[in-house]
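Complex 456.
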Amino acid sequence: MRQSAEDGVVTGTGVREAAAKRSTTARDALARLLRSDWRDPDGGAPITVPAIAVEIERSLSGMEAEVVAPLHLGRRIAVVSDQTTRTVLGHRVESALSRLSTILPIVLDAQSHADAHTVKMLRHSCAAADALVAVGSGTINDLCKYAAAKDGKPYAVFATAPSMNGYASKNAAITVDGHKQSLPAASPVGVFMDLAVLSAAPARMIRAGLGDSLCRSTAQADWLLSHHLLGTPFRVAPFALLAEDEPGWMNEPEALLHGDLDAMRALARTLVLSGLGMTICDGSYPASQGEHLISHYVDMFAPPSRDTYFHGEQVAVATLTMARIQEHVLGAGLPHLQPSSMTCVELQRRFGFDIGEACWREFEAKRLTQNALPNFEARVAETWSDIARDVRNAMISVERIHDVLKRAGCPTVAADIGLSPEFYATAVRNARFLRNRYTFLDLADDSGLLATVYPT
Ligand SMILES: [Zn+2]
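Predicted structure with zinc ion bound:
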């Protein structure tokens, strides 16, 4: 397994001065995790993750072939970009890797989506290639990751924007028959991040990455709630991995937009570690809870005329909302619960027949019925002080989240992501029905508190 340059084990060129400067080995969770030397805080055994070469450098210029060569990607490499990412970095990668292999440049249309049709086209274009190297961010990464997995080929990625946490994860977000799904894919064999390139990405993409990272706290709080109330297995590991870098991008969020490469390094590491955290937990639990359900509702039901927004921009707004709901529920004290009056027919009325039925199946798993109420109330009463303590420890305050988002110029309200307050309130009230994951949205609704924050 190739290790991160940051652990100082991989010797390289003078470009890696940043790695040398960092005092790494003692507390560098990423480097230690990649060499199976990071101990699980829950059990003490070292955690093993897929073998991924991770290089996060102030500049990778001139090092592209050097970092890819040890991966032995084969004689023919498809380098996949679009017109924009090819200009930003793709040409450079193609030219450097041509010293190693025959390059098949594949340039996707700028309007390409990560959908089944484009995956098919990409697999066809890459048929003669032994491996795929993505040069891009969300869409290109998802497409390559999924196409490579389908064909059993390795893939690596050169990131062009710090916009999402899916670089190191083993799932791909692909739209099939109009529905965005998180589908199993292969882990990359290499994730390469040139911090100068990431810093030059459009501001909105940097802000999106900030939003998709800031939800750490609301996701952790929701998962803890589910753990205490329903016994859902919870892991400390994904959050312990992120703790070291969180202050680096949160304390001076504006620095991310001003080309500060140290702040960008902290965000880049967070995005990679967040993806690895999902792999460790075999699911998106540590990075996707109530705030992602709200964003998911927006993806599914926002008016088609609305402009396009990045996932992380929506998550930024939804994280602020979830933090408010979480604070509100905790502040109200022991919840007084009512059984849910939701029915399959009502969900079908709200979401349409098929989606309504699918959502009912998800919701039924966690629906608070009249029969279940006494036991559940007892469980809430029994665990409430533990919930309040653990969630408060995990939470970042609403005030702080708002401050971080504002200072970075991130969206904070519905209008900032092209939505009316009415639509957004509907999204918040209905998001809980999309998935069986139990979050503060459920507890807030079943205790009547959601309606006080987001009235009908
Ligand atoms: Zn996300």
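Residues 373-394 form the longest helix (22 residues).
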